[in-house]
Design brief:
By secondary structure, the protein is α/β, with parallel strands linked by helices. The protein contains 9 helices and 20 strands.
Length: 426
């Protein structure tokens, strides 16, 4: 029987549905925009007038949404929550068909820091986007084949007796998924995609397609207080941010920005290193009669929250963690600290978060890596440097980060959402 409160359980199940509907960054944006539109947000176009109100703008795997409250002025500060839509996975190469030994296989490229072994012997679908030939030029269409058509078969132990002592996977040779027995025809995986979306194969001009686990997200554990799902890093934060924004009635100008390509460095037209967020903030400020000085004052009072999952202390390998900063699933969101600025939390931003958590009635934790181990990073430092905003890094603790299947506490996502909503008030 679940020990979760009704609110925690309902939110965890909603998060699972969000993830299941969002097998690629492009689907994350589509799912998020549907949530925003249901909450009264409107798609923004450059020809629109004042950005006052509730707006969003989508671009591929990235999304910016904002609320300019009534009474906002050029000095009104921003409260910005950032997350990323991408997750490590296996992606198809431009010439995807790679038959071998009587099998139809796919040539794949590793995207991000993948735990390679987690993709072995897993039933996978195919998702992403294709660009198509159209009567008025190129058009885009999402693809979601949500059934088990792909599998990366592991070598039998009889042919590798030492596999349990050393598992070494060659990215080129060992990670190619199979999708059919070779029947001697010229059938391509793109023919399958074309059939799925009901277009001629010759209409496909380009694609970004990736594997995804087809097993639905679910509550697990004897008390059903854990959430097992793919892509928790970082769709959990995307869902929390959009949920908080959709229900917000803020005094500050509230913004959610979801970026693509965080897992590969954020340097792209839709990554955190793009100028899209600073330009949007400047545009909002200018629409309120702002100038350089008023924008600077607004930014000085603003806050950027980089929301990206944290490492829970692993029960089987606790020595990989700092012994004085034990992080628990269902222990509340974890503020992330790093003296070398891989995370952006400082004394002031930590205090702001702790006060918001107190108001929301949420417990918090503090994460820091072992001093003899490097830590990862987030979009936090990139956005803080580009905008000049005070910033913090926070995330829900999880196990198996960057696995094809991840695990977190089922109460933490709602607690994070409550604190983000409190921070948005201003």
């Amino acid at each position: 029987m679940s020990v979760l409160s009704p609110s925690h359980r309902a939110h965890a199940l909603a998060l699972g549905r969000f993830i299941d509907e969002s097998p690629s960054p492009f689907h994350v944006v589509r799912t998020a925009t549907a949530m925003l539109e249901a909450a009264g947000f409107t798609a923004w176009h450059d020809a629109d007038g004042s950005p006052s109100g509730r707006w969003y703008r989508a671009d591929g795997g990235s999304l910016i949404a904002w609320i300019v409250p009534d009474g906002a002025t050029a000095s009104t500060p921003f409260r910005v929550i950032g997350a990323h839509t991408d997750s490590p996975n296996l992606r198809l190469k431009p010439h995807p068909d790679a038959p071998a030994a009587g099998w139809r296989r796919l040539g794949i490229e590793i995207y991000g820091g993948v735990l390679l072994n987690s993709w072995l012997d897993r039933d996978c679908g195919l998702s992403g986007r294709v660009t198509l030939r159209g009567p008025e030029g190129v058009r885009e269409q999402l693809v979601r084949i949500d059934r088990p058509i792909l599998r990366v078969p592991q070598l039998a132990i009889h042919l590798d007796r030492e596999v349990n002592e050393r598992l070494a996977l060659n990215r080129q040779e060992h990670l190619a998924p199979v999708w059919a027995i070779d029947d001697g025809t010229n059938r391509s995986i793109l023919d399958i995609v074309a059939d799925e979306i009901a277009v001629p194969g010759t209409d496909i001009l380009g694609f970004e397609l990736m594997l995804h686990d087809v097993v639905p997200s679910t509550l697990v554990g004897v008390d059903e207080d854990l959430l097992s799902a793919p892509r928790l890093d970082n769709q959990l934060s995307c869902h929390a941010a959009i949920t908080a924004l959709a229900g917000a009635a803020p005094d500050a100008i509230s913004v959610v920005t979801l970026f693509d390509h965080e897992e590969v460095g954020s340097v792209s037209s839709t990554g955190a290193a793009t100028a899209a967020l600073p330009q949007r903030l400047q545009s909002i400020n200018a629409s309120l009669g702002g100038d350089v000085d008023s924008y600077a004052r607004s930014i000085a009072d603003s806050l950027f929250v980089s929301s990206d999952n944290a490492h829970a202390t692993h029960p089987n390998q606790p020595h990989k963690h700092d012994p004085h900063h034990v992080i628990h699933c269902n222990g509340g969101p974890a503020l992330k600290f790093n003296a070398n600025q891989r995370y952006t939390t400082d004394a002031v931003s930590a205090a702001l978060f702790e006060l918001a958590a107190e108001r929301a009635g949420v417990s918090t934790q503090q994460f820091v890596s072992r001093s003899d181990m490097p830590c990862g990073s987030t979009i936090g430092p990139t956005v803080a440097a580009a905008t000049g905003m005070r910033a913090l890094d926070v995330g829900v603790p999880q196990l198996a980060m960057h696995s094809a299947r991840e695990l977190c506490g089922a109460s933490d996502p709602w607690d994070l959402t409550l604190v983000l909503a409190e921070l948005m008030i201003g």
